[in-house]
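Please predict the structure of the following assembly.
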Amino acid sequence: MAAVTQDTAVSTGRITRTFIYLVLVLFALFYLLPLYVMGVNSLKPLNEITGGNMMALPSQWTLEPWRSAWSTAQIGVEPTGLKPYFLNSILMVVPAVAISTIIGALNGYVLTKWRFRGDTWVFGLMLFSCFIPFQIVLIPMAVVLGKLGLAGTVPGLILVHVVYGIGFTTLYFRNYYASFPTELVRAAMIDGAGFFRIFWRILLPVSGPIAVVSVIWQFTNIWNDFLFGVSFGGTSQPMTVALNNLVQSSTGVKEYNVHFAGAILAALPTLLVYIVAGRYFVRGLMAGSVKG
Amino acid sequence: MGFLDIRNVTKSYGPVQVLHRIDIAVEEGEFLVLVGPSGCGKSTLLNMIAGLEAITDGEIAIKGRVVNGVHPSKRNIAMVFQSYALYPNMTVGQNMTFGLEMHGVPKPERDRALADVAKLLQIETLLDRKPGQLSGGQRQRVAMGRALVRNPDVFLFDEPLSNLDAKLRVDMRTEIKKLHQKLKTTIVYVTHDQIEALTLSTRIAVMNKGHVQQLGTPKEIYDTPANLFVATFMGSPAMNIVPATVVMENGHPHAALTDADGGVHRLRFSQANLAAWEGKPILLGIRPEAITDPEGADRKSGNIQPFSNRVTVTEPAGSDTFVTMTLSGKDVIARMRADANVTPGQSFDFAINMEKAVAFDPATEARIPA
Amino acid sequence: MATEADFRTRLQDWLPKLVLAPSFAVTLLFVYGFILFTIVLSFTGSKMLPKFTWVGFENYEKLFALPAWNTAIVNIAIFATLYIVICTVIGLMLAIFLDQKIRGEGMLRPIYLYPMALSFIVTGTAWKWFLDPGIGLERIMHQWGWESFSFTWIKDGEMALYTIVIAAVWQTSGFVMAMFLAGLRGIDNETLKAAQIDGASNWQLYRRIVIPLLRPAFLSAFVILSHLAIKSYDLVIALTGGGPGRATEMPATFMYSYTFTRNQMGIGASSAVIMLMTIAAIMVPYLYAELKEKK
Amino acid sequence: MRLFGKTLTAAAVLVMSTSLVMAEDVEVLHWWTSGGEAAALNVLKDDLATKSIGWVDMPVAGGGGEAAMTALRARVTAGDPPTAVQMLGFDILDWAGEGALGDLTSVAAAEGWDTVVPTALQAFSKADGKWIAAPVNVHSTNWVWINKAALDAAGGKAPETWEELVAVLDAMKANGITPLGHGGQAWQDATVFDGVVLGIGTDFYKAAFIDLDPAALGGEQMAEAFNRLIKLRSYVDDNFSGRDWNLASAMVINGEAGMQMMGDWAKGEFLKAGKVPGTDFVCIRFPGTQGAVTFNSDQFAMFNVEGEGAVAAQAAMASAIMNPTFQSAFNVVKGSVPARTDVPNDAFDDCGKKGMADLAEANGSGKLFGSMAHGHAAPAAVKNAVYDVVTAAFNGEYADGAAAAAALAEAVAAAQ
C-alpha cells in the first residue's frame, strides 16, 4: 500500500478531524442504506415485511427466502431458482472479460509502443464506442448475429460484450502503457525479443494494476447487463434476466423477501470482486486511467 | 571503409527534416561521442544505428554490412539506455541474460558469460536482486553488464550517466573509460555533457540542429572549433567571444578591443592571414585559461600580450580563481592561479596567450582558418 | 526504403497493425456501421421492424412536436447538470477527506465504491421502497416520532426527477471519489510542502494548488458522468418508470419505448440520432484536445 | 360430446403425423413467471411431453411483456424466432403484417375453432382468413372488486350506475378509508378509464376506441369521461403513484381501501389471501357496463419455423392450447375465462362463472370489445398515445375534461 497511502502534507486540527470522520461515516451509511434494506428484509418472513418497518431488524430470522431464491423460486415454468442462471452468467462473463481485457492490453500496447501514422485517429474512433447507447445497436446487432449464426448463443453474447468492451479496455491499457518507459521495449528489441515476446515477457508482468481495473470494470458491466442478455441470450439467459423474471412476475403475491435475497445473490459476484480487488482499484486508476 | 559507417544519412518526420546528411566513419575500437544540446538529433542518430528508428535516406553499415531495415537484434549491437531500461520484473541475472536467451544461447553458456561480466563489473552479489532494489550506480553497472554479456560489435550508449549524481557520474565516467581501454570495443556514446565528451572520446561529433558541426579528436574540437557553436558549446567555462576589429600594426594583424573604461587595446594575432581582414569586424575567441595573471602565463607560448582592465567579479574556486571583466561590452572570464591578488573594482594586469586565440567570421560564424 | 529488410523485420513492422486491425474493423462495423444504420432508419417509415421506405425529415418533425420528447430534453438537462455537479462535489469532498490519513480508509473505500458494482435491477426495489412515502423514509420518520416529516418527492411530478438524481448520485459518487483520490495521491508531496511553507492555509492549499492539479481527474469524471447521464435508463425504469405520468421521461427511455414498445421505430431512431449528436458534441472536442495533447 | 370427439380425432391425426416426422422441441417466449401462471403453463408443458415434444422455456418478465417484445424483435431480426410467443391483441396482427407468423388454419379447421372462439377474439387470432395464434384465455377488464365489509358500511348495495358509484365512494371516504385502491401506472390509469368510457355508452366506446372516430375522441362525451376520471382521482390516496396493482389489491383485501377497478386477474390476489367471493369481497362489472365486456386475450402467436418436424410440433402445441381441459385448468388458476365458449364451468368459482356468462352474453349481443388499456382496441402507437393523455389527465395536468378530450384527439391523430 506504500504508493497509495502516501500521506498528504496537510495537517488538520482535532475539530476538523472529528468533522471529517463524521462526514465520512454519514456517507458510508448513505451508501450502505439500500444494501441494508435488502439484507434485512431478505431475512424476514413475508408478513413481517408487509406489516412492519423496512428498517427494522427481523423479529423472526429466516434463511428460507435465500433458499427459495437460490433453488426453488419460480423463474419460468420450472421452479429452479436462480441457480442454473448463475452458471449461464459465469459461462458468459468469464470468457468475455478475459477476451476483452487481453485485446485491450494488446491494443494499448500497439497504440503506445508501436505507434504509426494515424494511430491517435484509430484510438479516437475506437474510444467513441464507449459512449454509444446500447439500445440503438439492438436491431442491427440482431441482424449481424443472425447472419453469423450466433443469435441466441453464449458465443454470440460474448461477442457482443467484447465488441462494446474493447473501447474501455483499450483506453485503460493505453493510458497505463503510455507511462511505461519505451526504452524498455527498445532494450528488449535489441535483446532480440519480438512483438509478442516483448508484450508477454516485459509488459504483461507489470500490468497487474491496470488489469485489475479493466477486469473490475468489464466484470461488473457484463455481469449487470440486462438488455443484451435478454435480447441475445436465447435459452441460456444470464442471471440478470432470471432476477428480472423473479422480481417482475406480473401477477401473484410479491415475495419481497425472496426478491431481495435473489437480488443480493445476483449481486454477490460483483460485490465480491469490488471488495477483493477494490483496494487495487484506486492504485490502478492512479496508474494511468485518470490521466486519460 | 570504417567499422561502422554512417553514409549520408538523413531523417525526416513528414516534412520536417531532423537530420541532414550525416557522414561519419567509425574505426574499430574507437570511442565516438555524439554531443550536442537536446533536440540536436544525436539520440535519433543513435536510434538509427540501433535500428530503433527507420532511416529516411542514406545507409548505415556495420562491419561492411548495410543494416538498413535489419532488425535491431540482428545488428549485433548492444545499447545502454539513459533510464537503464532494466526489466522491472526480472532479476539482475535474468536481465543480463535475456538477450542471450532470446538469441537461443544455451543455459550453461549464458551462465558462463554472466559470471564473467558480473566479475568484471563487480556485481556478482547483485545477480538475484530485482532492479527496484538497486542503487543508481548499481543499476548503471547492470545496464552495462547487460550490454557486455552480448559481446556485440558496437556498443551504443544513450546518455548513460545523466541520471546519476555528480560524484557518481565522475566515478562511472572513469570506469567506462577503463573498460574501453581494457576491452577495446567500438563505442558510440551520446551525451549533452561536453566534459564527458572530452574525457571519454577518441573522437567527437558535435551536433546542432541536425547537422554535424564538427567531427574530430577532443583536442581538435577544443583548440580549433569549427565555428562559434562548437567554440561556445565545448569547454567550461565557455570560450569568451568578443567583438573586435582587425587592425594592422608593424605589418601584423591585431585585434582592437575596448576595455571597461573605454581604453583601446591592440592584441597581436599569431595567425598571419588575418591581415586580409584589415578594417573588418571579427569575433575574437579566447578560452578563459588563455587569459591569466602575467606570472601564470604559458611559458612555452610565443605570443603573450599584456593588457590591463578593471575587474568586476572574482570567483575563487579552490584550484583556480575566475575573474570577470568587461571587454568590448562583453563579459569576459579569465582563469587565474588561486593565489593571484585580484580585487573587484580595481584595475589588474592580465596576460593573454594569443597563440590560443581564434577568430570567427561574424557573418557565417565559421572560424577563419589559419 | 529498406534495402535488405528481412522477412522477420517486415513481419515485425506489420504485426502491430495486424493485431490492432480486428478491433478496428469490429469498431467500424459495430459502432459506426450501426450508427449509420440508425441514421438511415431515422429517415424511414419503420414501425415494428426496419423498413426502408423513405420519409425524409418527417420523423424529426414528429419527434419535436411530441410533448414527451420536450419533457425528456428538459429532464435530461436538469438531471445531467445536477448529477454531474453533485457527484463531482461529493466525490471531491470524500476524496479530500479520505486523503487525511484516515483510520479505516480500507473499510470506507469499498463501501463508497460498491454501488457502482450493482445494477439498478438489483437495487431498484430497495430504492423504490426507501423513497416511497408509505413504506420508506417518511413512514420511518413517522414511526420514530417525527410526525410532520414529509418526503413525497417520488410521487410528485415536479420533484420525482430529483429522486432519480439522488439514486444516481448514490451509484456513481463513490466511483468519482476513487478517481479524485487517485488524482490526489498522484500529486507530488513536495509541491504541497512548498505551498505550506509559502504560508497557504489548508483551504487555500486545496483551492489554489490541489484542485487545479486535479484537472485531468475532473475531465475524466466529467466525461464519464456525462455519458452515464445521457445513457441513464435502468435507473429511471427501476425508480419511476418514467412517471408520475411521464414527468421523468428521459431521452434513453423515450428512445427505447418508441423503438420497442410503441412500434414507431422511425421516431425512436430519430431520437437516437439526436442523442448521438449530443454525445458527439460533448465527446469529440474532449477527445480531440486529449489526443492532440498526448501526441 | 360430438365436439370432443372431433377434437380427439384431430389430436390423434396430429399425434400420428408428429410420430412420423421426428418430434421436435417447441421454444416458448412468455412472461408468465409467477407461481400460479407457471403452474398453469406446466399443464401445457406436460401435455406436450406426452407427445414427445420438448419444451424450451424462454421466460422474460416485466411490464406486461415489454421486455419480452424487445427480445422477440431481436430474435426475429436475427432470423431465429421462437416457436410460440405469448402475445396480446394488436401485437399479433402487427407481427402478422410483418409476415413473421405461421399458419394454423389446417389445425383450426380440423378442430372447428371458428365456431367456438368468440368473434371479437378471432379478430386477433386470424389475419387474412388464416389462423395465426391460439388464444389461451379471455380477461375481462371492466371489473370492480369491493371489500364486502367496507361496502356494508357504506350502505351495502353494490353500485349499478355512475351516480351510485360516486355515492358509495363518498360514503367510504366518510368512513375514513381510502375509497379507491389504485396504482399510478399508465396501464392501471387506462384500465380505469376503459370502464369509465364503456360506462358512458357501448356505442361511444366503439366509436372512440375501436373506430378511433375523431369526433368521438374529442367530443363532449369524452370530455364527460375525463371529468369522471378526474373525479375518481379524488378518491385515491396520495401515495398511489407507481404502486403495483397487487399492492392496491392488498389494500382492498385488508380493508385499507374500499374497492379496486381492475381486470379479473385481481381475483387471484383475493383468493390467495383466503377471501371468499360473495362473503369477503364482491365482484361487479364497472357500474354502467353491465352486459358489456372489454377484454384482453393472451394468445400464443405461432411464428414461422423451419422444418417439417418443427411445424408439426407447433401445430401440436396449438392443438393442446385449445384443448378444453387445458383451457379450464389454466383459466381456473389464472382467474380469467376460457377463450372458447364451450368449456364447462364446473371448476370455476362464482366470479368465474359470472365472467363466463357475461362473455357469452356480450359475444351474442355484440357488446364484447377489445380493451384499449390492454392493446386490444387499437395498435400500440395509439394505445400509448392514449396512455399519455389519460395518465396526464389523471395526474391533473389538464384544466378540465374538455381540454383532455381535445388533447386525446390530437395525440391519437398523431400516432396513426
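Chain D has two domains: 5-138+296-354, 143-294+361-415. Chain D touches chain C through 31 residues (CB under 8 Å).
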